[in-house]
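Dear H.,

Thanks for agreeing to be a second pair of eyes. The structure we're designing against is below in token form, covering all 370 positions.
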């Protein structure tokens, strides 16, 4: 269903942008209608091949095709937004008919500039976002404990082992007491390599290194990715709650998006947190859903990812309709929710005004005095 929606949306953007580009004075002088249509068909075919062949295959060619196709989608989206803004402002040419075609040309230039900025920002390393969170029930001796969380690295098609090594080094540099991997660490097209596992083993923390499954890693009964994490010295939490330290419980649920797509109606959050626990509870959930259920069940902190913060502005306004907790810090019925924008990228290696991030959370046993 997602693939069908994506193909339909991209096809509609192709038709719209080519239609409006055909009225731009400069392009009309330099490019024939036949050339414009032919180039549009080639780019559409590139996207479709990248989506079907590149997405479901492995190897250098598949990777290049998928990256090219997904990058073109982002460029097309960033051309559509200013073009549509111009058309709305000019009543699709009925207002200011003399300058409307030139404004459409300016919109195309704007889209190109935004695409270049997004490409540059997508290449940057993630920033470290720092939070302090009062966690009800946290023992005094754990006051000041540091939890470093990373989500959505998407190691695979476009982000390689070298990139993973640099992100692991970033996490280690924060001297965490606990490391949590919040899903989509791997893209899921192919199995992680021995080098990936060796890199993961460098993650060390006194209170352990923990992970949950994201939608790209979720395989239902396929335990191969879990074996990969275990080989890397990482414990995967699958709808279970454990004692990280006396007085501090750590819970993790399978990806809620994948769970819902499977047609399952079980409230994994409530079910997982139903086990009586003493002290404070931190919940790890790749998808930032069911936060109210987590708060009602007694969790004091919920750490999530998945949304990428929209990744490419202004796409976040669309994403927010599905994931209202889009990025950053929220208070839900007294529980703190932190949604990471993710360390990597999905699809194109592009970000616009939504930098990648690693979250560093300092736990506090007492509220700050104002």
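And this is the sequence the design step returned. I haven't edited it by hand at all.
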């Amino acid at each position: 269903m997602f693939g069908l929606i994506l193909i339909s949306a991209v096809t509609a953007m192709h038709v719209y942008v080519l239609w409006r580009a055909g009225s731009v004075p400069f392009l009309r002088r330099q490019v024939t209608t036949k050339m414009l249509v032919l180039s549009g068909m080639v780019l559409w075919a590139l996207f479709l091949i990248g989506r079907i062949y590149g997405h479901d295959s492995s190897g250098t060619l598949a990777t290049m095709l998928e990256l090219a196709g997904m990058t073109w989608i982002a460029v097309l989206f960033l051309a559509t937004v200013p073009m549509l803004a111009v058309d709305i402002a000019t009543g699709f040419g009925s207002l200011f008919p003399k300058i409307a075609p030139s404004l459409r040309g300016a919109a195309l230039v704007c889209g190109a500039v935004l695409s270049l900025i997004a490409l540059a920002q997508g290449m940057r390393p993630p920033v470290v976002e720092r939070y302090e969170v009062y966690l009800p029930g946290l023992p005094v001796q754990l006051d000041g404990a540091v939890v470093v969380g990373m989500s959505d690295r998407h190691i695979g098609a476009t982000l390689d082992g070298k990139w993973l090594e640099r992100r692991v080094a970033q996490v280690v540099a924060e001297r965490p007491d606990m490391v949590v991997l919040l899903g989509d660490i791997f893209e899921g097209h192919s199995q992680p390599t021995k080098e990936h596992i060796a890199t993961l083993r460098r993650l060390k923390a006194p209170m352990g290194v923990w992970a949950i499954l994201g939608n790209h890693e979720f395989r239902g009964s396929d335990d191969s990715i879990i074996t990969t994490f275990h080989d890397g010295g990482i414990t995967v939490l699958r709808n279970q709650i454990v004692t990280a330290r006396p007085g501090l419980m750590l819970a993790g649920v399978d990806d809620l998006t994948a769970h819902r797509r499977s047609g399952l109606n079980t409230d994994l959050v409530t079910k997982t947190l139903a086990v009586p626990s003493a002290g404070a509870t931190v919940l790890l959930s790749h998808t930032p859903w069911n936060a109210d259920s987590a708060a009602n069940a007694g969790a004091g902190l919920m750490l999530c990812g998945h949304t990428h913060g929209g990744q490419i502005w202004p796409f976040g306004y669309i994403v927010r309709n599905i994931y209202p907790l889009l990025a950053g810090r929220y208070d839900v019925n007294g529980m703190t929710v932190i949604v990471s924008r993710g360390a990597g990228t999905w699809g194109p290696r592009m970000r616009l005004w939504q930098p990648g991030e690693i979250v560093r959370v300092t736990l506090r046993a007492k509220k700050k005095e104002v």
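Two observations from my side: The chain has a mean pLDDT of 91. The radius of gyration is 23 Å.

Warmly,
E.
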